[in-house]
Amino acid sequence: MKDMFEPYRFQDLTPLFNPKSIAVVGASEKEHSIGNHTMKNIVEHSRFAGTIYPVNPKQDMVMGHKAYPDMASLPEAVDVVIVVVPAQFVKSTIEQAGEKGCGFAVILTSGFSEADDWGRAEEAALVEISKRTGIRIYGPNCPGLVNLNIPLGMSFSPAYKDDLVPGSVALATQGGGLGRNMLQHNARGMGFSIWSSSGNECDLQVADFVHYMAGDPEVKVICILVEGFKDGPRFAAAAKRAAEMGKPVIGLKVGRSAYGAAAAQSHTASITGSAEVNSTVFAQLGVIEVDDLDEAMDVAMLFTRAIPRGDEKVAVFASSGGAASLCADNVGTAGLTLSDFAPETLARLGEVLPSYAAISNPIDTTSISISQPQAFLDAIIACANDPNTDIVLAPMPMDYGIYTARGAQSMLEAQKTTDTPIVPIWFSERTGEGYHTLAEGGLVPFRSLRNMGKAVRRWIDWGTWRSGFDMAWTPLIVDQGVAAPATGTRTLTEAEGKRELAASGVPVTAPEVATSAAEAGEIAARMGGALAMKIVSARITHKSDIGGVMLNVAPADAAAAFDTIMANAGQAVPDAPLDGVLLEPMARPGGVEAFVGVARDPVFGHVMTFGLGGIYVEMFKDVTRAMLPVSQAQAMEMIGRLKSAKLLTGYRGQPPRDLEALALLVARVSDHVVAHAERIEEMDINPVWVGAEGEGALALDAVIVVRA
Question: What pLDDT band is residue 617 in, cutting at 50, 70 and 90?
Answer without folding.
Answer: confident
